[in-house]
């Protein structure tokens, strides 16, 4: 049973650039959530996707956007990168039967983004 | 709003020592509670969970009991090993009016176990 996968594992960008991170959920899961984890901090919720729509969003600017595809995989896009966007970006998947999300989320290994 | 408070680290123990990491929460409704573990350089792994009052989650020798009266979910292990060295996160998940859930996280507690 494939778990949550993310790509790439590491990425280095410069300020002002744009980046796209990818996530494939655990088999059978239909909901994807994205988190940002700065060094030495806990994860911060960015947004969650279900049925190809953004379902809820944390306190992040519009520079952070996402997408979910019909196969439930997801992308996180960040425009106009800032030094402060350097972090580990985590994707988590869960199941939402009848549209009600279940509570257990399974995490991928993360993408380490460094902005220079 | 909902929040999670866990004890600050770092915690340093000798192998075979007893471990307690405190976690308390505030939430409206009836949240599910979780402990996640993050080993160096890796993502988050679910360690254990409890979904209702008095439930005990357990895994790999770790235990935590959902205490509604004290709004706590303290993590314990009777005898830690060097391989338990990691950062431990307490989290809660509550269902909002839109049938959405997100995880609310504590700041994490770093554990170092010395041989």
Describe the structure.
The complex is a heterodimer of chains A (116) and B (115). Chain A has strands at 5-7, 10-13, 19-24, 31-37, 44-50, 53-57, 64-68, 74-78, 87-94, 106-107, 111-115. With 116 residues, chain A is mainly β. In chain B, 37% of the residues are buried. Helix content of chain B is 0%, strand content 53%. The model of chain B has no long low-confidence stretch (mean pLDDT 92). Chain B is mainly beta. In chain B, strand 10 (86-95) and strand 11 form a beta hairpin. Classes of the chains: A mainly beta (116), B mainly beta (115). Chains A and B meet through strand 5, strand 9 and strand 10 of A and strand 5, strand 6, strand 10 and strand 11 of B.
Blueprint (SSEs and pairs):
The complex is a heterodimer of chains A (116) and B (115).
Chain A: E1 5-7, E2 10-13, E3 19-24, E4 31-37, E5 44-50, E6 53-57, E7 64-68, E8 74-78, E9 87-94, E10 106-107, E11 111-115
Parallel strand pairs in A: 2-11
Antiparallel strand pairs in A: 1-3, 3-8, 4-5, 4-9, 5-6, 7-8, 9-10, 9-11
Chain B: E1 3-6, E2 11-14, E3 19-21, E4 23-26, E5 32-38, E6 44-50, E7 56-59, E8 62-65, E9 75-77, E10 86-95, E11 101-105, E12 109-114
Percent of residues of chain B in helical segments?
Answer: under 10%
Radius of gyration of chain B: 14 Å
- Main sheet attributes: strand count, strand direction, barrel closure of chain A: 7 strands, mixed
Q: What's the order of the H and E elements of chain A?
A: EEEEEEEEEEE
State the helix count of chain A: 0
Overall 3D shape of chain A: globular
Ranges of chain B where pLDDT stays below 50 over 5 or more residues in a row are none
Alpha-beta content class of chain B: mainly beta
- Beta-strand residue fraction of chain B: over 45%
- Name the chain pair with the biggest interface and residue counts per chain: A-B, 28 and 24 residues
